[in-house]
Amino acid sequence: MRKPVIAGNWKMYKTVGESVDTALALKPLVANANHCEVIIAPVFTSLKVVADRLEGSNVRVSGQNCSTEVEEGAHTGEVAAFMLRDAGASYVIVGHSERRQFYSETDAMVRRKCQAAISAGLTVIMCVGETLDQRELGNAKNVVRGQLNGGLSGLTALDLDRIIVAYEPVWAIGTGRTATPEQAQEMHAFIRRVFAEGHTATAAEALRILYGGSVKPENISGLMVQGDIDGALVGGASLKAESFAKIVNYKDE
Ligand code: PEP
């Protein structure tokens, strides 16, 4: 059985104080959520204090990005994966579409980030997803296949245990336009097939594939009943503890 994952991506929102307040408000609201892994990804500056304040709870902390470089060094503005681990993170989001679109992140960079994160002991949430143009041209699956193979090539069977894939169609992120559960399921099943081709059927069966793109308390249940949807990566609706908790507690809604 794949344990579901519900992860909140706080993007570039919240000061340190606001991050702590939201994390502390979330903690009791999800304390009984044993059915899934609960993750929040604050900005770098808030990560350590949020992780410290959540110690002993069932909420884990993630970075939103990490350097391609494994070792410390002269890389101004970068944060190494091992530094995220040192600050209390257990996960890191890699290859988010905002990084691919606005910071020119390539599949080769995503691959190096995945490798750096795994070697630091983090679990990677690797994002893939097509733009609206790519979908309308009938290229969605080719794009996703390329991103999956480009980001994950060269990983060992052991490394694959530390990979979670998030399918986030770019046209659904922050737009209020969610993929239908059926559209998402179709792509998730495809991702699992591609993963099986590139690795093994067993690894593909164990792979958690999250859906991301305008997930809200109102649409999470319809997504979670799909056979290949193993959780959600949530942006906007994760910024308020109450709405994120409703998504985490989708079974009770
Ligand atoms: C995201 O940032 O990963 C995301 C899915 O955002 P939103 O939920 O706001 O669409």
Descriptive overview:
With 253 residues, the protein is an alpha/beta fold. It has a single domain, classed as TIM Barrel (Alpha-Beta Barrel), CATH 3.20.20.70. Helices cover 43% and strands 15% of the residues. The protein has 12 helices and 8 strands. The chain has helices at residues 16-29, 44-54, 81-86, 97-102, 107-119, 132-136, 140-152, 157-160, 181-198, 201-206, 220-224, 241-248, and strands at residues 5-9, 37-41, 59-63, 91-94, 123-128, 163-167, 208-212, 231-234. The protein has an 8-stranded parallel β-barrel with strand order 1-2-3-4-5-6-7-8, surrounded by 5 helices. Helix 1 (16-29) packs parallel to helix 2 (44-54), helix 5 packs across helix 7 and helix 7 (140-152) crosses helix 9. It is globular, with a radius of gyration of 17 Å. The structure holds phosphoenolpyruvate.
